[in-house]
Write a sequence for this structure.
């Protein structure tokens, strides 16, 4: 981006530079706004490190644990760098917004002094557009993206096991993602 030539996705220039080109753009905007606090969403790109470098108080929302997500992605140098930069962000940060036991324990494993703020995110309004009627007590609802890392296959296998004992079981799925599902 700093060359205005457009680099290929697999090029690790941003990660190798610790996202410095993006940081300078973000810092310029922050210095114009002079915020009381910077809320960075996620550690997967430049936002967390930029917020932490900015000199303003910062809080980081953990949107996912890159180290875990990378188990489902192609291994590679760029992905390894992203994992290292995620760890750097977490070690350097003080305040984190977490949603699950997984992200909370991950942050605490890298930064025992981290202040964790549990904030559950709101549901997508699409959930409320349908009138949901429970047909029986054996109804399950899955809301999430359809990717292996979200555990959809684990859920489907669990349903297979449940069907051995509970014949009348229903699963509703709301989400999109990988066409394999």
């Amino acid at each position: 981006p700093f060359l205005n030539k457009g680099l290929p996705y697999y090029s690790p220039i941003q990660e190798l530079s610790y996202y410095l080109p993006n940081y300078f753009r973000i810092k310029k905007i922050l210095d114009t706004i002079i915020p009381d606090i910077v809320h960075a969403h996620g550690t997967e790109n430049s936002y967390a490190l930029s917020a932490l470098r900015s000199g303003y108080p910062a809080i980081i929302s953990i949107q996912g644990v890159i180290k875990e997500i990378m188990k489902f992605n192609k291994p590679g140098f760029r992905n390894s760098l992203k994992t290292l930069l995620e760890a750097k962000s977490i070690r350097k940060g003080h305040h984190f917004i977490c949603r699950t036991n997984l992200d909370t324990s991950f942050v605490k494993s890298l930064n025992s002094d981290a202040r964790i703020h549990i904030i559950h995110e709101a549901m997508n309004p699409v959930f409320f557009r349908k009138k949901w009627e429970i047909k029986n007590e054996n109804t399950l609802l899955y809301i999430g993206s359809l990717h292996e890392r979200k555990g959809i296959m684990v859920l489907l296998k669990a349903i297979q096991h449940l069907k051995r004992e509970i014949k009348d079981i229903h699963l509703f799925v709301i989400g999109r993602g990988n066409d394999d599902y």
User: Anything to note?
Assistant: The CA atoms of residues 18 and 85 lie 7 Å apart. Helices lie at 13-16, 20-33, 47-53, 66-69, 77-92, 101-110, 152-165. The chain has a mean pLDDT of 85.
